[in-house]
Protein backbone atom coordinates (compact mmCIF):
# COMPACT_ATOMS: atom_id res chain seq x y z
CA UNK A 1 0.00 0.00 0.00
CA UNK A 2 1.28 3.49 -0.68
CA UNK A 3 2.77 5.45 2.16
CA UNK A 4 0.67 8.55 1.47
CA UNK A 5 -1.28 10.08 4.32
CA UNK A 6 -4.66 8.49 4.75
CA UNK A 7 -7.57 10.76 3.91
CA UNK A 8 -9.50 11.84 6.98
CA UNK A 9 -12.29 9.45 7.76
CA UNK A 10 -15.73 11.01 7.78
CA UNK A 11 -18.18 9.02 9.80
CA UNK A 12 -20.93 7.59 7.66
CA UNK A 13 -19.22 8.58 4.43
CA UNK A 14 -18.30 6.27 1.60
CA UNK A 15 -14.70 7.27 1.74
CA UNK A 16 -12.47 4.51 2.92
CA UNK A 17 -10.17 5.65 5.70
CA UNK A 18 -7.31 5.58 3.21
CA UNK A 19 -8.38 6.91 -0.16
CA UNK A 20 -9.03 4.19 -2.71
CA UNK A 21 -7.88 6.66 -5.37
CA UNK A 22 -4.35 6.05 -4.15
CA UNK A 23 -4.58 2.54 -5.40
CA UNK A 24 -6.32 2.99 -8.71
CA UNK A 25 -3.89 2.36 -11.48
CA UNK A 26 -4.22 5.08 -14.13
CA UNK A 27 -3.15 2.58 -16.78
CA UNK A 28 -6.36 0.65 -16.29
CA UNK A 29 -8.51 1.34 -19.33
CA UNK A 30 -12.19 1.91 -18.62
CA UNK A 31 -13.53 -1.61 -18.63
CA UNK A 32 -17.15 -0.83 -19.25
CA UNK A 33 -19.20 1.35 -21.48
CA UNK A 34 -22.14 1.12 -19.27
CA UNK A 35 -25.72 2.18 -19.36
CA UNK A 36 -26.13 4.44 -16.37
CA UNK A 37 -28.58 2.97 -13.89
CA UNK A 38 -31.70 5.12 -14.06
CA UNK A 39 -32.18 5.67 -10.37
CA UNK A 40 -29.60 7.77 -8.56
CA UNK A 41 -30.37 5.99 -5.30
CA UNK A 42 -29.97 2.48 -6.56
CA UNK A 43 -27.47 0.79 -8.82
CA UNK A 44 -30.24 -1.33 -10.15
CA UNK A 45 -33.00 0.63 -11.81
CA UNK A 46 -36.63 0.35 -10.77
CA UNK A 47 -37.30 -2.34 -13.39
CA UNK A 48 -34.34 -4.24 -12.09
CA UNK A 49 -34.99 -3.95 -8.37
CA UNK A 50 -34.67 -6.83 -6.02
CA UNK A 51 -38.26 -7.79 -5.34
CA UNK A 52 -39.98 -11.09 -5.96
CA UNK A 53 -42.86 -9.17 -7.51
CA UNK A 54 -40.56 -7.82 -10.18
CA UNK A 55 -39.08 -11.22 -10.68
CA UNK A 56 -42.50 -12.54 -11.60
CA UNK A 57 -42.73 -9.88 -14.32
CA UNK A 58 -39.35 -10.56 -15.86
CA UNK A 59 -39.60 -11.76 -19.42
CA UNK A 60 -36.07 -12.98 -18.94
CA UNK A 61 -36.44 -16.71 -18.78
CA UNK A 62 -37.52 -19.09 -21.46
CA UNK A 63 -37.33 -22.84 -21.18
CA UNK A 64 -36.64 -23.85 -24.69
CA UNK A 65 -36.12 -26.85 -26.91
CA UNK A 66 -35.67 -24.54 -29.90
CA UNK A 67 -31.97 -24.22 -30.64
CA UNK A 68 -31.24 -27.69 -29.26
CA UNK A 69 -30.72 -30.99 -30.98
CA UNK A 70 -30.38 -34.14 -28.92
CA UNK A 71 -29.98 -31.99 -25.82
CA UNK A 72 -27.02 -30.09 -27.37
CA UNK A 73 -27.14 -26.41 -28.30
CA UNK A 74 -27.56 -25.98 -32.05
CA UNK A 75 -28.22 -22.89 -34.20
CA UNK A 76 -28.33 -20.13 -32.94
CA UNK A 77 -26.70 -21.40 -29.76
CA UNK A 78 -24.04 -23.65 -31.27
CA UNK A 79 -20.87 -23.40 -29.21
CA UNK A 80 -22.69 -21.91 -26.21
CA UNK A 81 -22.16 -24.01 -23.15
CA UNK A 82 -25.05 -24.86 -20.89
CA UNK A 83 -24.13 -23.59 -17.46
CA UNK A 84 -24.49 -25.87 -14.45
CA UNK A 85 -26.16 -24.79 -11.25
CA UNK A 86 -23.51 -26.48 -9.11
CA UNK A 87 -19.90 -27.52 -9.81
CA UNK A 88 -20.13 -30.63 -12.02
CA UNK A 89 -18.15 -33.87 -11.59
CA UNK A 90 -14.57 -33.26 -12.70
CA UNK A 91 -14.53 -29.73 -11.28
CA UNK A 92 -11.23 -28.60 -9.82
CA UNK A 93 -10.55 -29.07 -6.14
CA UNK A 94 -11.41 -25.97 -4.13
CA UNK A 95 -14.47 -24.59 -5.91
CA UNK A 96 -17.54 -23.93 -3.75
CA UNK A 97 -20.76 -22.24 -4.82
CA UNK A 98 -23.38 -21.07 -2.35
CA UNK A 99 -26.27 -20.02 -4.61
CA UNK A 100 -28.31 -17.91 -2.19
CA UNK A 101 -26.15 -17.41 0.82
CA UNK A 102 -26.83 -13.71 1.28
CA UNK A 103 -30.25 -12.49 2.30
CA UNK A 104 -32.21 -10.28 -0.09
CA UNK A 105 -32.59 -7.71 2.65
CA UNK A 106 -28.85 -7.45 3.30
CA UNK A 107 -28.06 -7.37 -0.41
CA UNK A 108 -30.50 -4.52 -1.00
CA UNK A 109 -28.92 -2.62 1.86
CA UNK A 110 -25.37 -3.05 0.54
CA UNK A 111 -26.49 -2.09 -2.96
CA UNK A 112 -28.02 1.10 -1.54
CA UNK A 113 -24.86 1.90 0.40
CA UNK A 114 -22.69 1.23 -2.65
CA UNK A 115 -24.96 3.36 -4.84
CA UNK A 116 -24.64 6.24 -2.39
CA UNK A 117 -20.89 6.04 -2.72
CA UNK A 118 -21.09 7.03 -6.42
CA UNK A 119 -18.15 4.82 -7.26
CA UNK A 120 -19.42 4.28 -10.77
CA UNK A 121 -19.86 6.82 -13.53
CA UNK A 122 -20.80 5.67 -17.01
CA UNK A 123 -19.88 8.97 -18.62
CA UNK A 124 -16.39 8.78 -17.26
CA UNK A 125 -16.23 5.06 -18.01
CA UNK A 126 -15.77 4.31 -14.33
CA UNK A 127 -17.20 0.92 -13.54
CA UNK A 128 -14.48 -0.66 -11.47
CA UNK A 129 -13.26 0.37 -8.06
CA UNK A 130 -10.62 -1.14 -5.81
CA UNK A 131 -10.76 -0.79 -2.05
CA UNK A 132 -8.03 -1.79 0.35
CA UNK A 133 -8.10 -2.55 4.04
CA UNK A 134 -5.42 -3.47 6.51
CA UNK A 135 -5.89 -6.03 9.21
CA UNK A 136 -5.46 -4.79 12.75
CA UNK A 137 -5.34 -6.67 15.98
CA UNK A 138 -8.65 -6.25 17.74
CA UNK A 139 -8.95 -4.86 21.22
CA UNK A 140 -8.97 -7.58 23.89
CA UNK A 141 -12.14 -5.92 25.22
CA UNK A 142 -13.79 -6.75 21.89
CA UNK A 143 -12.82 -10.40 22.03
CA UNK A 144 -9.36 -9.96 20.54
CA UNK A 145 -10.60 -10.72 17.06
CA UNK A 146 -9.06 -9.22 13.97
CA UNK A 147 -10.52 -6.06 12.59
CA UNK A 148 -9.95 -4.13 9.38
CA UNK A 149 -9.03 -0.55 8.92
CA UNK A 150 -9.20 1.45 5.70
CA UNK A 151 -12.41 -0.03 4.30
CA UNK A 152 -15.73 1.79 4.15
CA UNK A 153 -18.38 0.70 6.60
CA UNK A 154 -20.62 -1.12 4.13
CA UNK A 155 -17.72 -3.34 3.05
CA UNK A 156 -16.76 -4.19 6.60
CA UNK A 157 -20.39 -5.19 7.11
CA UNK A 158 -20.25 -7.40 4.03
CA UNK A 159 -17.07 -9.14 5.20
CA UNK A 160 -18.52 -9.65 8.67
CA UNK A 161 -21.71 -11.11 7.25
CA UNK A 162 -19.73 -13.36 4.91
CA UNK A 163 -17.72 -14.59 7.85
CA UNK A 164 -20.88 -15.25 9.86
CA UNK A 165 -22.62 -17.24 7.14
CA UNK A 166 -19.55 -19.00 5.73
CA UNK A 167 -17.87 -20.11 8.96
CA UNK A 168 -20.24 -23.02 9.57
CA UNK A 169 -19.97 -24.10 5.91
CA UNK A 170 -16.17 -24.34 5.77
CA UNK A 171 -13.62 -26.79 7.07
CA UNK A 172 -10.80 -25.52 9.29
CA UNK A 173 -8.30 -24.93 6.52
CA UNK A 174 -10.62 -22.98 4.25
CA UNK A 175 -12.05 -21.03 7.17
CA UNK A 176 -8.57 -20.07 8.33
CA UNK A 177 -7.54 -18.97 4.83
CA UNK A 178 -10.50 -16.63 4.48
CA UNK A 179 -11.02 -15.54 8.06
CA UNK A 180 -7.89 -16.02 10.12
CA UNK A 181 -8.39 -15.52 13.82
CA UNK A 182 -5.95 -15.04 16.64
CA UNK A 183 -6.70 -18.36 18.29
CA UNK A 184 -6.23 -20.43 15.16
CA UNK A 185 -4.85 -23.94 15.38
CA UNK A 186 -1.22 -23.65 14.24
CA UNK A 187 -1.24 -27.25 13.01
CA UNK A 188 -3.21 -26.34 9.89
CA UNK A 189 -1.88 -27.52 6.51
CA UNK A 190 -1.83 -24.05 5.03
CA UNK A 191 -2.79 -22.75 1.63
CA UNK A 192 -0.93 -22.92 -1.68
CA UNK A 193 0.28 -19.36 -1.24
CA UNK A 194 2.47 -20.65 1.57
CA UNK A 195 0.21 -19.28 4.29
CA UNK A 196 -0.24 -21.52 7.26
CA UNK A 197 -3.42 -22.31 9.06
CA UNK A 198 -1.74 -20.93 12.20
CA UNK A 199 -1.84 -17.51 13.77
CA UNK A 200 -2.30 -14.91 11.06
CA UNK A 201 0.27 -12.42 10.02
CA UNK A 202 -0.82 -9.19 11.54
CA UNK A 203 -0.95 -6.33 9.05
CA UNK A 204 -2.15 -8.24 6.06
CA UNK A 205 -4.21 -6.30 3.58
CA UNK A 206 -7.43 -7.19 1.88
CA UNK A 207 -8.41 -6.00 -1.54
CA UNK A 208 -12.02 -5.64 -2.58
CA UNK A 209 -12.68 -5.02 -6.24
CA UNK A 210 -16.13 -3.95 -7.41
CA UNK A 211 -17.08 -4.46 -11.03
CA UNK A 212 -20.32 -3.24 -12.54
CA UNK A 213 -21.28 -5.20 -15.66
CA UNK A 214 -23.97 -4.21 -18.10
CA UNK A 215 -25.81 -7.23 -19.48
CA UNK A 216 -23.64 -7.77 -22.55
CA UNK A 217 -20.28 -7.47 -20.87
CA UNK A 218 -17.86 -10.09 -19.67
CA UNK A 219 -14.36 -10.54 -18.38
CA UNK A 220 -11.42 -12.17 -20.11
CA UNK A 221 -10.53 -15.62 -18.89
CA UNK A 222 -7.75 -15.32 -16.30
CA UNK A 223 -6.14 -16.62 -13.14
CA UNK A 224 -6.09 -13.96 -10.42
CA UNK A 225 -2.51 -12.76 -10.08
CA UNK A 226 -0.59 -15.42 -8.22
CA UNK A 227 2.15 -13.03 -7.09
CA UNK A 228 -0.28 -10.56 -5.67
CA UNK A 229 -3.17 -12.42 -4.06
CA UNK A 230 -3.33 -15.31 -1.62
CA UNK A 231 -5.17 -18.62 -1.70
CA UNK A 232 -8.89 -18.24 -1.12
CA UNK A 233 -10.91 -15.79 -3.19
CA UNK A 234 -14.49 -14.74 -2.50
CA UNK A 235 -16.68 -13.71 -5.45
CA UNK A 236 -20.05 -12.18 -4.56
CA UNK A 237 -22.74 -11.54 -7.18
CA UNK A 238 -25.38 -8.85 -6.80
CA UNK A 239 -28.22 -8.00 -9.13
CA UNK A 240 -31.92 -8.37 -9.61
CA UNK A 241 -33.48 -11.47 -8.09
CA UNK A 242 -33.59 -14.35 -10.55
CA UNK A 243 -30.80 -13.02 -12.75
CA UNK A 244 -27.15 -13.95 -12.85
CA UNK A 245 -24.32 -14.86 -15.19
CA UNK A 246 -22.53 -17.98 -16.35
CA UNK A 247 -18.86 -18.05 -15.38
CA UNK A 248 -16.64 -20.23 -17.54
CA UNK A 249 -13.84 -22.34 -16.13
CA UNK A 250 -10.96 -23.75 -18.18
CA UNK A 251 -7.89 -25.64 -16.97
CA UNK A 252 -4.67 -23.65 -17.46
CA UNK A 253 -2.91 -26.66 -18.92
CA UNK A 254 -5.16 -28.88 -20.96
CA UNK A 255 -5.17 -32.37 -19.55
CA UNK A 256 -7.23 -35.01 -21.22
CA UNK A 257 -9.48 -35.59 -18.24
CA UNK A 258 -10.01 -31.92 -17.41
CA UNK A 259 -12.80 -30.34 -19.36
CA UNK A 260 -13.95 -26.77 -19.13
CA UNK A 261 -17.39 -26.05 -17.74
CA UNK A 262 -19.68 -23.18 -17.07
CA UNK A 263 -21.27 -22.38 -13.72
CA UNK A 264 -24.30 -20.16 -13.21
CA UNK A 265 -23.75 -17.53 -10.52
CA UNK A 266 -27.14 -16.17 -9.48
CA UNK A 267 -27.60 -12.84 -7.73
CA UNK A 268 -26.88 -13.20 -4.00
CA UNK A 269 -24.54 -16.11 -4.61
CA UNK A 270 -21.05 -16.49 -3.20
CA UNK A 271 -18.38 -18.42 -5.06
CA UNK A 272 -15.16 -19.47 -3.34
CA UNK A 273 -11.99 -20.40 -5.19
CA UNK A 274 -9.14 -22.19 -3.44
CA UNK A 275 -6.29 -24.44 -4.45
CA UNK A 276 -6.72 -25.96 -7.97
CA UNK A 277 -9.72 -23.79 -8.73
CA UNK A 278 -7.73 -20.70 -7.77
CA UNK A 279 -4.33 -21.57 -9.30
CA UNK A 280 -4.77 -24.19 -12.03
CA UNK A 281 -8.01 -23.05 -13.66
CA UNK A 282 -8.93 -19.82 -15.39
CA UNK A 283 -12.27 -18.13 -14.91
CA UNK A 284 -14.01 -15.67 -17.21
CA UNK A 285 -17.38 -14.43 -18.44
CA UNK A 286 -18.43 -14.41 -22.08
CA UNK A 287 -19.57 -11.03 -23.37
CA UNK A 288 -23.19 -11.73 -24.32
CA UNK A 289 -26.54 -10.72 -22.89
CA UNK A 290 -27.96 -14.16 -22.10
CA UNK A 291 -26.89 -17.52 -20.74
CA UNK A 292 -28.08 -21.05 -21.27
CA UNK A 293 -28.55 -22.67 -17.90
CA UNK A 294 -29.73 -26.08 -16.83
CA UNK A 295 -33.30 -25.68 -15.61
CA UNK A 296 -32.68 -27.63 -12.42
CA UNK A 297 -29.54 -28.63 -10.63
CA UNK A 298 -28.00 -31.71 -12.22
CA UNK A 299 -30.71 -31.98 -14.88
CA UNK A 300 -29.50 -33.16 -18.26
CA UNK A 301 -32.76 -32.21 -19.93
CA UNK A 302 -34.38 -28.82 -19.83
CA UNK A 303 -32.38 -25.73 -20.51
CA UNK A 304 -33.32 -22.16 -19.69
CA UNK A 305 -32.28 -19.15 -21.70
CA UNK A 306 -31.73 -16.47 -19.07
CA UNK A 307 -31.43 -12.85 -20.05
CA UNK A 308 -28.67 -11.11 -18.13
CA UNK A 309 -29.29 -7.96 -16.12
CA UNK A 310 -26.99 -5.36 -14.66
CA UNK A 311 -24.62 -7.16 -12.33
CA UNK A 312 -22.34 -5.97 -9.57
CA UNK A 313 -19.57 -8.27 -8.45
CA UNK A 314 -17.50 -7.84 -5.32
CA UNK A 315 -14.30 -9.89 -5.28
CA UNK A 316 -12.47 -10.14 -1.97
CA UNK A 317 -8.86 -11.33 -1.70
CA UNK A 318 -5.91 -11.17 0.67
CA UNK A 319 -2.85 -9.41 -0.69
CA UNK A 320 0.32 -11.43 -0.28
CA UNK A 321 2.97 -9.98 2.05
CA UNK A 322 4.67 -7.11 0.23
CA UNK A 323 2.08 -7.04 -2.53
CA UNK A 324 0.46 -4.00 -0.98
CA UNK A 325 3.39 -1.88 -2.14
CA UNK A 326 2.32 -0.24 -5.38
CA UNK A 327 4.64 -0.16 -8.40
CA UNK A 328 6.56 -2.47 -10.68
CA UNK A 329 3.99 -5.25 -10.74
CA UNK A 330 1.46 -5.97 -13.45
CA UNK A 331 -1.97 -4.60 -12.64
CA UNK A 332 -4.77 -6.93 -11.82
CA UNK A 333 -7.07 -5.94 -14.57
CA UNK A 334 -8.99 -8.00 -17.01
CA UNK A 335 -10.65 -6.15 -19.79
CA UNK A 336 -14.38 -6.45 -19.86
CA UNK A 337 -15.38 -7.22 -23.38
CA UNK A 338 -18.34 -6.06 -25.37
CA UNK A 339 -20.39 -8.60 -27.18
CA UNK A 340 -18.83 -9.33 -30.55
CA UNK A 341 -21.21 -8.43 -33.35
CA UNK A 342 -23.03 -11.30 -35.00
CA UNK A 343 -23.00 -13.61 -32.00
CA UNK A 344 -26.37 -14.84 -30.74
O1 LIG B 1 -17.27 -10.73 -11.99
C1 LIG B 1 -16.76 -11.57 -11.29
O2 LIG B 1 -17.37 -12.15 -10.40
C2 LIG B 1 -15.32 -11.94 -11.55
C3 LIG B 1 -14.34 -10.90 -11.17
C4 LIG B 1 -12.94 -11.44 -11.26
O3 LIG B 1 -12.70 -12.51 -11.74
C5 LIG B 1 -11.82 -10.67 -10.72
O4 LIG B 1 -12.03 -9.53 -10.28
O5 LIG B 1 -10.70 -11.18 -10.73
FE1 LIG C 1 -10.75 -13.21 -11.23
TrEMBL record:
Q: What is this protein called?
A: Uncharacterized protein
Organism name: Violaceomyces palustris
Amino acid sequence: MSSSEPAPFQAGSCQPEASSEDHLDPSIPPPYQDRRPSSPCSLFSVEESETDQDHAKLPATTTTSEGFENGQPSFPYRGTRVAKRSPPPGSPRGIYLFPSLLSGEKCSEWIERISECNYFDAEEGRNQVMLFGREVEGKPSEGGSLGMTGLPDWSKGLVQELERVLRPELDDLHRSLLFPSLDQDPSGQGGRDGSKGGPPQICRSRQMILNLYSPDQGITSHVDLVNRFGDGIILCSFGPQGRGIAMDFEPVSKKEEEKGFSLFLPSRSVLLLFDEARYDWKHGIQPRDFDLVEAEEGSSGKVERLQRGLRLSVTIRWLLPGADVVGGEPVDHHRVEQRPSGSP
